[in-house]
Write a structure and sequence with these properties.
With 459 residues, this protein is of the alpha/beta class. It contains 15 helices and 15 strands. Bound molecules: pyridoxal-5'-phosphate.
Length: 459
């Protein structure tokens, strides 16, 4: 069946003369159009967040975005070295992924119906079980915080059914796991939960990288799960000591605690491994992991959990608890086809291998600039295309972070962004399509910005 032309009962603009139609919203061709979009967003969405983006030279409209570039309304080409703060690792509007999503939409299936089978999501989940056979159960949802919530609930429910008496989640100082109520309590920054009065019970934080502190907590016998990021993202691109994650795996096994890795930011190839823990071979294999960001390629919201059979079945392996965590959009087909297309591209284009091969050139350049401006750049750290630059402070105690970031964006048209739990650190997130010329472009932008802040902010 094809739809007949619908009978228009009224012109929407006769009823609401100011109404902006869908077609109009897509038409951003002039500076005035951009200003209008800005005004609307400031008035009707998150005003102060928008203003904060504008303060670092972001908060613009991309009239076109492809590969590692986006173009503004004046035709200026920008280098996207932040990737929508993580998701656009496979390139902006990656044609392989876009084509599968379009094909899906053209097939006129049912996307969100929780009662129907979800063949695209089931295929993605099956494929993941081929790649990580010890994590054969998948839940697909619509974002990182939702993924972490899903896993928090899974381990708590599993524990309620199988390890009665355990009450606590263990996580790390400075961690970021999202901004829903449970995830800010799991997260390691008090600021994100100060509004709620007392912290929710059942969350304990230990220093990231300190397995001894974690073991002291586990010895008490009431820990359900240990959560951490393989590399802390918002905490400032913190790479743990080499033995930390393997040791945490060992301890979790010893104390019968679920080992849960939040791979929302570090996962999906960003560090040069499909999952960041794979850097350690098999030594840091989790009982479950969360993913989001780059498994969406910044096209359609995607998040999810991969879990072991034991964990999943302990939580949801019966008729009753199977309904304890359902949602209308859970396992929906458009997130499923998007994740599936991303995964297929990651494998066929060898995204992890490409990142491991190309990253050293850029890292060498960053370290050269660090040597040139030792007072401005204190550290360059991360792995693969998950790169953090830690800046120093001037005599007045101001970090150079925001000014460098702004200069790179406004003067050199290179987009980067600071981390939200660490004022000293700015991240640079190249994407798969970045060329040697793009790396040179970003390096020159950083060099120029460091020279600028040396002049204007003092040493
Ligand atoms: C490690 C980690 N977990 C969870 C989240 C939350 O993801 P979202 O912003 O999609 O809710 C983020 C977001 O930056 C993250 O970095």
């Amino acid at each position: 069946m094809s739809y007949p032309e619908f009978e228009k009962k009224v012109n929407v603009t006769d009823l609401y003369p100011e109404f902006i139609t869908a077609d109009e919203s897509l038409r951003v061709e002039t500076v005035e159009d951009v200003e209008k979009a800005k005004k609307l967003q400031l008035a009707h969405n998150n005003q102060y967040r928008t203003e904060a983006a504008m303060a670092i030279g972001a908060g613009d409209v991309a009239v076109k975005a492809e590969g590692a570039y986006w173009w503004d309304v004046n035709g200026v080409k920008h280098l996207d070295f932040i990737g929508s703060v993580g998701p656009a690792l496979l390139g902006l509007n990656n044609p392989f992924v876009v084509e599968k999503v379009k094909k899906y939409l053209d097939a006129h299936l049912i996307t969100m119906d929780p009662l129907m089978l979800h063949q695209t999501t089931a295929a993605f989940s099956y494929n993941m079980s081929l790649i990580t056979p010890y994590l054969p159960r998948t839940v697909v949802c619509c974002g990182g915080a939702e993924a972490v919530e899903t896993l928090l609930k899974m381990v708590r429910l599993a524990s309620y059914r199988t390890k009665k008496g355990r009450t606590r989640m263990l996580s790390t100082n400075n961690a970021f796991h999202g901004k829903t109520q449970a995830t800010v309590n799991l997260g390691g920054k008090a600021k994100w939960r100060m509004w709620q009065g007392p912290d929710l019970p059942g969350y304990t934080h230990v220093p990231f990288g300190d397995w001894r502190a974690a073991e002291e907590e586990m010895k008490k016998g009431d820990v359900i799960a240990f959560f951490c990021e393989p590399i802390q993202g918002e905490g400032g691109i913190n790479v743990p000591p080499e033995d930390y994650l393997p040791k945490m795996r060992e301890l979790c096994t010893k104390y019968d605690v679920y080992f849960c890795l939040d791979e929302v930011q570090a996962g999906s190839c960003r560090t040069g491994y499909l999952w960041a823990y794979q850097y350690y071979g098999d030594k840091a294999r989790p009982d479950a992991l969360t993913f989001a960001k780059a498994m969406s390629d910044s096209l359609v919201p995607v998040g999810g959990v991969l879990a072991s059979e034991d964990l999943y079945m302990a939580a949801y392996g019966n008729d009753e608890t199977a309904f304890f965590h359902t949602a209308t959009y859970q396992d929906n087909q458009i997130s499923g086809i998007t994740a599936l297309a991303c995964l297929e591209f990651m494998i066929e284009a060898d995204v992890p291998g490409t990142i491991r091969k190309n990253a050293p050139y850029f890292w060498d350049g960053l370290r050269r600039i660090q040597k040139k401006y030792p007072n401005i750049i204190k550290d360059v750290r991360g792995r693969g295309y998950m790169i953090g630059i830690e800046y120093g402070q001037n005599k007045a105690g101001e970090y150079y972070t925001v000014e460098v970031c702004k200069h790179m964006s406004v003067v050199s048209h290179v987009s980067t962004m600071f981390t939200i739990n660490n004022d000293a650190v700015c991240r640079i997130y190249p994407n798969y399509w970045a060329t040697k010329e793009d790396f040179d472009w970003a390096l020159k932008a950083l060099d120029d910005a460091c020279a600028y802040v040396t002049e204007t902010m003092g040493k």
